[in-house]
UniProtKB/TrEMBL annotation:
Domain of life: Bacteria
InterPro entries in UniProt: DNA_Rep/Repair_Clamp_Loader (IPR050238)
Keyword Transferase recorded: yes
Protein name: DNA polymerase III subunit delta
Record lineage: Bacteria, Pseudomonadati, Pseudomonadota, Alphaproteobacteria, Acetobacterales
Pfam (any one): DNA_pol3_delta2
Species: Falsiroseomonas tokyonensis
GO MF annotation terms: DNA-directed DNA polymerase activity
Keywords from the named record: Nucleotidyltransferase, Transferase
Length: 355
């Protein structure tokens, strides 16, 4: 008696975290930086290495990919019509579509990703960099340029950074390297001195709101405005906050700061913050708390007005408290301390009774 054929095993494909970035057709902010890149390419004297620096989540990699696909499509040679925005390439262009699919032979991207043991790899390894260096040294497959994007260059391991430095010192012809970083001071001074740096600023509300409308269509205008405010001009941070219950946690931060000294709701707040077993709620709560404090202190220092709770203590004490909250979060994570108790400790520090 023959057996029934087995059903084929379901294939599970790894999520591609870069796909949405590679496929973004529009330029949100950073017009001046895009114009600088385009001008340099059209001049015929294109620097071989660039650094796009700025806070996390503001579109550094998006701009890097935009530059790469325009360059590989022949933009520097005048093969791409100049559009109303710099580095523009029609989404139907074959180069755009292939890069969006991660299938262009002359573009490679390095970014921290999942490590060999299943954990989060917080570094870019030397093996990956050496592979990218060999890639840059090859003749372009399509006769134009070779392009490498290193996203999160501050996470290069020391030996990886040194390997990259050799390529920066002796760049191959018709090859472009773009580094993105949220912490340029963590890069080797010798690397910083051999790249052309473009500093990107957080997106203002007029630019960020329509972008969040596209990325987070399920939220209403008030929720998007709140996320934009607490994300301080970072679309990536706003999306992360939305996915991590950032609006609810911000409401708890507002309540805690608005009720300084009133202990009746402390345990309810602490329970809500510590509810997620992975600790993400606690990390976000402390980050939002510190962000609220630093923002209020900056407002007061500029004479722009500040929330009433800031007057509960001198500005210098708020700065010290900001540092203490950062250490509390780090110790709680590293030592696996009780998160609810850590929240209660933070609320006690906030209380004016500590003065």
């Amino acid at each position: 008696m023959s057996r029934a054929p087995r059903a084929p095993k379901e294939q599970v494909f790894a999520e591609d975290p870069d796909q949405a970035v590679r496929a973004m057709p529009d330029l949100f902010g950073h017009v001046a930086a895009a114009e600088t890149l385009q001008r340099a390419a059209l001049s015929g004297r294109l620097p071989h290495a660039w650094m796009l620096a700025g806070p996390p989540g503001i579109g550094k990699a998006t701009l890097g990919y935009r530059f790469g696909r325009w360059l590989l499509a022949g933009g520097a040679e005048g093969s791409v019509p100049l559009g109303s925005t710099p580095l523009n390439l029609d989404p139907q262009h074959t180069t755009f579509r292939r890069i969006a699919a991660g299938a262009h032979a002359d573009l490679r991207a390095l970014r921290p990703n999942t490590g060999e043991k299943g954990g989060v790899k917080l570094v870019i390894r030397v093996e990956d960099v050496r592979d990218a260096i060999r890639f840059l040294a090859m003749t372009p497959a399509e006769g134009g340029w070779r392009f490498v994007l290193v996203d999160g260059a501050e996470m290069l391991r020391p030996e990886a950074a040194n390997a990259l430095l050799k390529t920066l010192e002796e760049p191959p012809p018709r090859a472009v390297l773009v580094l993105t970083t949220a912490a340029p001071d963590r890069l080797l001074p010798t690397i910083r001195s051999r790249v052309r740096r473009l500093d990107l600023s957080p997106l203002d509300a007029a630019v960020l709101d329509p972008l969040l409308g596209r990325l987070l269509p399920e939220l209403n205008a008030t929720e998007r405005a709140t996320l934009g405010r607490i994300a301080e001009g970072s679309a990536g941070q706003a999306v992360a906050l939305a996915e991590g219950e950032g609006l609810a946690l911000q409401a708890l931060v507002d309540q805690a700061l608005g009720e300084l000294g009133d202990r009746r709701n402390w345990h309810r707040i602490a329970d809500a913050v510590a509810a997620k077993r992975d600790g993400s709620g606690f990390a976000t709560f402390i980050a939002l708390l510190r962000r609220a404090i630093s923002s209020a202190v900056r407002q007061a220092a500029r004479g722009q007005g500040a929330p009433g709770w800031l007057g509960e203590r001198p500005l210098a004490e708020w700065s010290t408290l900001w540092d203490s909250l950062g250490r509390l979060a780090a110790e709680t994570d590293v030592l696996s301390l009780d998160r609810k108790q850590a929240v209660l400790t933070a609320l006690l520090w906030l209380s004016p009774s500590r003065r």
